[in-house]
Amino acid sequence: MTNLLIKKQDIFLTFYKTAIFHKMIMVFYFYKNKKEGFYILMKLKEKFQQFMYGRYGTDEFSRFLLYFALALMVITLFVRVPLFNTLALALLVYCYFRMFSKNIYKRADENRMFLQKKQQFLNYFRKNKDHMGQMKEYRFFKCPNCKQKVRVPRGKGKIKIHCPRCHNDFIKKS
User: Fold this and answer.
1) Taking Cα atoms as reference points, which of 166, 167, 172, 129 lies closest to residue 153?
2) In which band, very low, low, confident or very high, does the pLDDT at 3 lie, cut at 50, 70 and 90?
3) Nearest Cα to 167, choosing from 150, 4, 11, 106?
4) pLDDT tens for residues 44-103?
5) What percentage of the chain exceeds 70 in pLDDT?
6) Contact indicator for 69, 85 with CB cutoff of 8 Å
7) How far is it, in rounded angstroms, from Cα 130 to Cα 151?
8) Most buried one in 8, 58, 74, 168, CB count within 10 A?
9) What is the 3-state secondary structure (H, E, C) of the chain?
10) Exposure of 56 by Cβ count < 10 A (0-12 exposed, 13-18 middle, 19+ buried)?
11) pTM for the full model?
């Protein structure tokens, strides 16, 4: 019996040295006192909901800031540049400022602007993806008059290109 107690104490000390120990205490506490543990969790959830009432919360821009800060922190692990660490901390502070802000309209406007910029960025790459798929068979030129993109077949030599928008003619080698 004493050997079993000593082994239990050794196991206890090894768990105590790790962060898992604290989580296990909570799990065992909630397991033994299911009703009390559930009640405590519900109270905490209710208090947090009351605190967040009237605040902005999370949106796509906040998630982007959070993920970008996390990526900077990971980069900082490999590349020791203090600027990245400072920038990551500033992004986290700004992200939490946005989440806990009571100025909902301003935060929604910031999110709308972010979504517009994100859409422009994605559209640029979608357009270029289509453009790259056609590079084998076609060449693309810009009209010198109106800057309209004009697509012409490859390998036809010097050709006269007619702009469909401004009806300007120009000569290029395809």
Assistant:
1) 172
2) very low
3) 150
4) 888 888 887 888 888 899 999 999 999 999 999 999 888 999 999 999 999 989 988 999
5) 79
6) no
7) 12
8) 168
9) CHHHHHHHHHHHHHHHCCCHHHHHHHHHHHHHCHHHHHHHHHHHHHHHHHHHCCCCCCCHHHHHHHHHHHHHHHHHHHCCCHHHHHHHHHHHHHHHHHHHCCCHHHHHHHHHHHHHHHHHHHHHHHHHHHHHHCCCCEEEEECCCCCCEEEEECCCCEEEEECCCCCCEEEEEC
10) buried
11) 0.56
Check: CB of residue 130 under 8 Å from CB of residue 146: no
Please give the pLDDT value at position 106: 94
Task: Give the position of tokens 């709308």.
Answer: 112
Amino acid at 81: V
Residues 6+ apart with CB under 8 A from 156: 174
Residue 92: which residues within 8 A CB-CB, separation 6 or more?
A: 65, 66, 69
pLDDT at 109: 95
Tokens of 94: 């700004």
Residue 33 corresponds to which amino acid? N
